[in-house]
Structures are given as structure tokens and as C-alpha cells.
Structure to design on (184 residues):
């Protein structure tokens, strides 16, 4: 059995399946990743606990037969079942990697689970900040195209006002990018 996987991959939790996709072994943390932890049982069908595996039987059989090396599902989201009473909107993310393992004369599918919540939340914050920055730049461009030059130019002629407006707009863009905090 692949119980030595915890030593080889300490950042991962694992689950071993036989050819019939029945659970043979799993590490202590695997129930935290299951949609239905109560259905995660030795000898039970893994698809009852992990519905995202329904429809992937062909891929898993190809991995088991050596026709495919591995398969990964990234960024699977789950409601945090341990904190739902305290924080009902709290969720966590994980990656699932499926690969083959042969032990003595037995072939197994190994499912590796890794919590990637922090990475996914940071990625979401960066996307949010980027979108906010794009909206501000769009608003600036809109105001510049529709009357921003009148207030920026002072007493000079129309050409001077336009140039001053453009310079001010570029300075504003640089300040906006410098002052954007991507860690919120």
C-alpha cells in the first residue's frame, strides 16, 4: 500500500483507489476535501465522496493502464464544513492530482490533495485590484476625452490646455499604479 506517500509528499493528503475506484487507503486529512465526508469509507466508491470524479472514469482508467501519465483539477472550491456556523460564506480551495502507483503486483490510482486557499484568494484579490484599476483608468480616459482639458489647462490656448491635460492624466495614471495596494 502507498502509506509511505505521506513521507514523500508531506504537503499533500492522499487517497489510494483500486481498479474499481474503491477506496483502499487515505490519509487523515482527506475527509476535509470531500464533498460528502460521511461517504468516504474504505472499500467505498470514491465518487460518492468526490462528485467531481463522476464522468472521469475513462481518464482514470487511462492513467491506471499507463496510457496517460496524470491528470489535475485545479482550484476546486468547497464550503468549509468545519466553520460554517461561524462563517457561512467561508470556503477553501484545493488542487487534485491523479497519478498511477504500482506496489508489488497491484496497481493503484493515487489522488493527491493540496490546500491552495491562500494562493486562490491572493489571485482573486489581484484580479479585483486589476479590474478596479482598469475602471479608474477608463473613467480618467472618459473624463479626459469629454471635457477634462477645460479644467486642466489654465489660461493658455486650446493646444496648451490639451497638452497639460494629457500630462496630468499620465501623471495620475502613474500615481494610481504606484499607490495601488495589491495585498488587501
Amino acid at each position: 500500500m502507498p502509506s509511505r506517500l505521506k513521507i514523500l509528499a508531506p504537503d499533500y493528503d492522499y487517497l489510494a483507489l483500486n481498479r474499481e475506484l474503491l477506496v483502499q487507503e487515505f490519509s487523515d486529512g482527506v475527509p476535509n476535501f470531500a464533498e460528502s465526508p460521511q461517504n468516504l469509507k474504505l472499500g467505498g466508491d470514491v465518487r460518492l465522496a468526490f462528485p467531481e470524479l463522476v464522468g472521469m472514469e475513462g481518464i482514470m482508467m487511462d492513467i491506471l493502464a499507463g496510457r496517460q501519465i496524470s491528470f489535475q483539477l485545479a482550484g476546486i472550491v468547497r464550503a468549509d464544513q468545519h466553520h460554517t456556523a461561524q462563517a457561512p460564506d467561508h470556503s477553501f480551495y484545493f488542487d487534485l492530482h491523479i497519478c498511477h502507483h504500482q506496489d508489488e503486483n497491484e496497481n493503484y490510482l493515487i489522488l493527491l490533495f493540496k490546500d491552495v486557499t491562500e494562493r486562490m484568494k491572493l489571485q482573486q484579490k489581484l484580479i479585483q485590484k486589476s479590474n478596479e484599476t482598469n475602471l479608474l483608468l477608463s473613467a480618467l480616459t472618459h473624463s479626459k476625452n469629454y471635457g477634462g482639458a477645460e479644467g486642466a489647462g489654465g489660461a493658455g490656448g486650446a493646444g496648451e490646455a490639451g497638452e497639460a491635460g494629457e500630462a496630468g492624466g499620465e501623471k495620475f495614471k502613474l500615481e494610481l499604479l504606484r499607490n495601488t495596494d495589491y495585498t488587501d
